[in-house]
């Protein structure tokens, strides 16, 4: 997820009417219209980024397979690709165009207004570029995720397993869809300190600003940012921003220390075996499931532009299994995390984010 600064709208729009949780109920989709054409435009990074774009790609193709149609997908390399790529899909008579990432917001709104008979969905943006609390076009479905809730669990977990008493996070750029992970991570660690009487420090995010690479590509800048945190004795590290986790993994291996890595978006243990041995868990967005559900509904003639907000309650966000780290997570810590999840869902524990307030 990369591009110019496109702020996401406040929670009033999104939480006023959230779509139901995605469900895979085995409903017969054989009646789908044969002329339904689902399409997708990626953000920079491509559909093999093992994260954000890849999840959307998997979701649209799964739905297309069930509908008996073929999806058309186009990759973006730079910001100037967005509008031409969307227009290319308009010209191919797409029925539904899914755009992946908040950076495509303005191009998506422009295309939706110019083509009111085409259905659109956008991942990680409210499509409210005039900030009036309403989606800018009636034919756009926003798909967003309150990942602070899941990151809260990951922050609590990280503080609980830390041996140095220092954990860290860094991001690609300081956008709401990036910092929402960091917000939850910090709050979760602080909650652990409150209930445990500890003083685990969180580096890389102070609630307003922190450590950012300036982009969303793996490389020397991302590795140097990770290294700067490692040099401050962190032993759990959360990089937020697509493939920058690969640079964090390289810095961890170079350090020769035992440092746990956290993934984001996908369960990175499954998508990238090369870093599996480092992963404590991943803060998951159900981008694949939400995309699948949206495309499937549209293919059956049931497109609903009501914003979808993924939460712990509807399964749209969560943390992945501990996998190889399972033996290092004490049973009482895991039990506390399960209790904490229930408390967040019930509202007993409040998690602040730009989506929840």
What's the number of structural domains? 2
User: How many helix segments?
Assistant: 11
| Tally of strands | 12
Characterize the overall form: globular
For the record, the CATH architecture of the largest domain stands as 3-Layer(aba) Sandwich
CATH superfamily grouping of the largest domain: Response regulator
**CATH topology name of the largest domain:** Rossmann fold
Low-pLDDT segments, ≥5 res: 1-32
Q: How do the strands of the widest beta sheet line up side by side?
A: 2-1-3-4-5-11
Structural class by sheet pairing and helices: alpha/beta
Residue-averaged pLDDT, rounded?
Answer: 90
Give the biggest beta sheet.
6 strands, parallel
Order of helices and strands: HEHEHEHEEHEHEHEHEHEHEEH
Query: Which CATH class of the largest domain is shown?
Result: Alpha Beta
What secondary-structure arrangement, pairings included, does this model have?
Blueprint: H1 11-16, E1 38-41, H2 52-67, E2 72-74, H3 82-91, E3 96-100, H4 105-114, E4 119-123, E5 140-145, H5 147-161, E6 166-171, H6 176-196, E7 201-203, H7 220-230, E8 236-240, H8 244-255, E9 260-265, H9 268-271, E10 279-285, H10 287-299, E11 308-310, E12 317-319, H11 331-346
Parallel strand pairs: 1-2, 1-3, 3-4, 4-5, 5-11, 6-7, 6-8, 8-9, 9-10
Antiparallel strand pairs: 10-12
Helix pairs in contact: 2-10, 5-6, 5-11, 7-8
